[in-house]
Amino acid sequence: MRNGFLHDLPKVHRSAAVRVAEQVAMSRVGLDEDDLMARAGLAAWRLLLDRWPEAQRIGVVCGPGNNGGDGYVLAELARSSGRHVFVLRLGDEVKAGAARRAAEAYLLAGGEAATFVVDDGLPQVDVWVDALFGIGLHRALEGAAADLVAALDHDNAAPILALDIPSGVDADSGHHDGVAVRADVTLAFIAGKPGLYTGRGRVAAGEVVIDTLGLADHVFDDLEPAACIARIAALPRWFPPRARDAHKGRFGHVLCIGGDRGYGGALALCAEAALRTGAGLVSAATRAEHVPALLARRPECMTRAVDDASELQPLLDAASVIAIGPGLGDGEWGAAMLDAALATDLPRVLDADALNAIARRDARTLGDAVITPHPGEAARLLGETVAEVERDRVQAARRLAGRYACTVVLKGAGSVIAAPGEIPAIVDAGNPGMATGGMGDVLTGTIAALLAQGRPQGLSCFEAAVCGALLHAAAGDAAARDGGERGLLPSDLFPQLRRLANPVARA
Ligand SMILES: NC(=O)C1=CN([C@@H]2O[C@H](COP(=O)(O)OP(=O)(O)OC[C@H]3O[C@@H](n4cnc5c(N)ncnc54)[C@H](OP(=O)(O)O)[C@@H]3O)[C@@H](O)[C@H]2O)[C@@H](O)CC1
Ligand SMILES: [K+]
């Protein structure tokens, strides 16, 4: 792995930044709103033709703003290409300017349009285009807009292409109140928006395609990105082949601590993930009763019985990175282990019961650490509700990173990684099959192993967290392709972790 590799990741921008970029482009290049709308409508029509070349009946739902304007441009292109096009609009008058001109051009050319009436239902079409609302949405959908979105959800079997953002989704946060279009494909204009990649917005967007509308990157030069997007395409650059003269001491020593009585499995998953992600050495410190099972399962892991913190000390002395939390429990034993781990200055990954303990203690000094909360743990760590965390996952991860002065991986659909002073990253991989017990333990071991291998070259906690969260999600996708999402086990990720961590060797 190389330092600074995150600089290459594609960036996404909030809607306010997109509007500034649009103004910069218009003033520098001499484009106007109609030009951009014409480009947006054309890009959408081309994508529709590419994805659904057989579609003859095309329905377009058009809202009152410029997102609707994009829809009218597409409708006219489809109509003039001989397709049967049907525009459904809301009762509202189309906003003056480019959107109204696009609507008038479609209607003057003889295009069909009707106002949506809930009792009439939806016409049968081959594809729907969602051009109700884009980045100008400021409130939850209600009335006819909500009824139309519900009809698209319940009374329609045709695929949906959303323009810019699925209507009802907040482009910046991905939040919606339960009423939002669920698209098969979303074509984002000018730049990706964070809300397309995480939380509910990720689910609503389906596949995301970006069209810059011909605007050069420099229109964003002075604008702080909202996040960068980590995709599987980055993995080969992050995992170059190992030096031929490498030795195990070069790849760090991960010490996994956890597995109070009755919780040995979580620690076994964490330790095996660290081994499969390429740590040079892996040790496990756990309750005596788990030692035989762990040794039998993975003799490569140096498993030790630890009853009190004094027995842990020699293991801490030998380690280069700590992974603590899986199966740690909420008893005195776990608390003593956590105290001993936090007393070192070793880099550490904290998960599960370690996070619950930290939330109870209100500790604020985690040092060189990665924490990997799911939304429930994040809510406890922040003293907020899960709904508050999920309403804007990027901001919640940033709040956590600020509060605990460490790197945060907020798990869930589109995991978000944040750290003080870093542009947050969103993982564009993973699937619902991964929502199962033990997946987090694998993530903890994966990140710890990357942290160990990066040292002493200086792979930061943030870099290891982004790389590890992507590797873990991509391994989950590969495992799901090989047998399906339902019934996917955390241990199914192990062969995939190894395969994905060796992309060059594989090619
Ligand atoms: N900017 C660019 O670079 C480019 C932008 N382009 C396109 O324009 C889109 C942005 O267009 P936009 O600004 O006109 O906003 P849009 O999303 O159409 O909605 C605004 C309208 O909806 C209304 N409204 C809002 N919420 C509502 C609600 N809950 N329920 C009901 N009504 C609601 C709101 O009314 P208001 O609240 O202001 O009274 C207003 O009338 C963008 O996503 C992209 O597709 C491209 O053409 C190319 C370049
Ligand atoms: K839309």
From TrEMBL:
Enzyme Commission number(s): 4.2.1.136, 5.1.99.6
Task: Summarize where (6S)-NADPHX binds, as residue positions.
Answer: 66-70, 134-140, 164, 266, 327, 374, 441
Domain of life from the UniProt record: Bacteria
Q: Which cofactor does it need?
A: K(+); Mg(2+)
Q: Which residues bind K(+)?
A: N67, D130, S167
The cofactor note from the UniProt entry for this protein is:
Binds 1 potassium ion per subunit.
User: Which reactions does this protein catalyse?
Assistant: (6R)-NADPHX = (6S)-NADPHX; (6S)-NADPHX + ADP = AMP + phosphate + NADPH + H(+); (6S)-NADHX + ADP = AMP + phosphate + NADH + H(+); (6R)-NADHX = (6S)-NADHX
Question: What's a Pfam family in this record?
Answer: Carb_kinase
Locate the residues binding AMP. K411, G412, A413, G414, S415, G440
Which InterPro entries does this entry report, sorted A to Z? Answer: Carbohydrate_kinase_pred_CS (IPR017953), CARKD (IPR000631), Nnr (IPR030677), Ribokinase-like (IPR029056), YjeF_N_dom (IPR004443), YjeF_N_dom_sf (IPR036652)
Domain (YjeF C-terminal): residue spans on this chain: 231-504
Q: Does the keyword Zinc apply?
A: no
Q: Return the Gene3D superfamilies for the record.
A: 3.40.1190.20, YjeF N-terminal domain (3.40.50.10260)
Query: Which keywords does this chain's UniProt record carry?
Result: ATP-binding, Isomerase, Lyase, Metal-binding, Multifunctional enzyme, NAD, NADP, Nucleotide-binding, Potassium
Note the CDD domains from the entry. Answer: YXKO-related
- Specify the YjeF N-terminal domain's residue ranges: 18-221
Carries keyword Phosphoprotein? no
Q: Which family does it belong to?
A: Belongs to the NnrD/CARKD family.
Subunit text: Homotetramer.
Q: What does this protein do?
A: Catalyzes the dehydration of the S-form of NAD(P)HX at the expense of ADP, which is converted to AMP. Together with NAD(P)HX epimerase, which catalyzes the epimerization of the S- and R-forms, the enzyme allows the repair of both epimers of NAD(P)HX, a damaged form of NAD(P)H that is a result of enzymatic or heat-dependent hydration. Catalyzes the epimerization of the S- and R-forms of NAD(P)HX, a damaged form of NAD(P)H that is a result of enzymatic or heat-dependent hydration. This is a prerequisite for the S-specific NAD(P)H-hydrate dehydratase to allow the repair of both epimers of NAD(P)HX.
Query: What is the protein's given name?
Result: Bifunctional NAD(P)H-hydrate repair enzyme
**What organism does the record attribute this protein to?**
Lysobacter hankyongensis
Q: Which gene encodes it?
A: nnrD
